Here is the input.
Amino acid sequence: MNSHHQDFYRIAREKMVETQIKARGIKDERVLQAMLKVPRHLFVDEALRDQAYGDFPLPIGEKQTISQPYIVAVMTEALELKGNERVLEIGTGSGYQTAILAELALWVYTIEKYEVLQERAKKILFELGYKNITFRVGDGTLGWEEVSPFDAIIVTAAAPQIPQPLIDQLKEGGKIVIPIGDEFSQMLVKGIKRGGSLHTKVLEPVRFVKLVGVYGFKE
Ligand code: SAH
Here is the structure.
């Protein structure tokens, strides 16, 4: 990749952050910096690179998608990461959200249902130099008991309700962000665990692919 390409993508990234992220009210400076830094175009197929900074999701194979940049920003900001958190991510997908989390937290544990997707994500994240990510292929609706509890949990696929294991594996004061609804439309929900139970609020309407698993949708 020559420097002309690098400039093209850097300018596209700056424009993305200005017009899609800042303009819509995202204020967390660390989130904005991470989105200016992470080369989103490397997380999509070569044929789609020039569209990587557009205001929409893109296909990544296995009928899955890389989330729209703005939605990545909303979900990440909702976690209020300061830098010392251990975060669980369900739905590695392209690995783009994983990179953003790795920029902002101490450690990221990420679970993906499809091995092919996770292998691709792992390779890119390794090449970009991230060393604070642990990967697992499996059903994320069960959480990751051995390395719990977590300061923050992010689910990037739609669930019919909040999977109980994820509530159990959240620390007191910990935050979870997850799209809840049916397979066609959902509401982004933020939960904070206080006194052992989850206090939730609705952020905004979203549309994600299905979270398929024991505590998610059936196959
Ligand atoms: N954050 C990703 C989003 C990928 S789409 C990105 O922006 O690229 C959602 C992902 O969740 C898909 O890769 C899908 O395979 C995965 N998924 C669905 N059900 C899952 C489950 N039970 N456990 C782990 N991953 C799951």
Summary: Residues 58-206 form a domain with the Rossmann fold fold (CATH 3.40.50.150). The chain has a mean pLDDT of 97. The beta strands are 58-61, 64-66, 86-90, 107-112, 133-137, 150-155, 170-181, 186-194, 197-206.
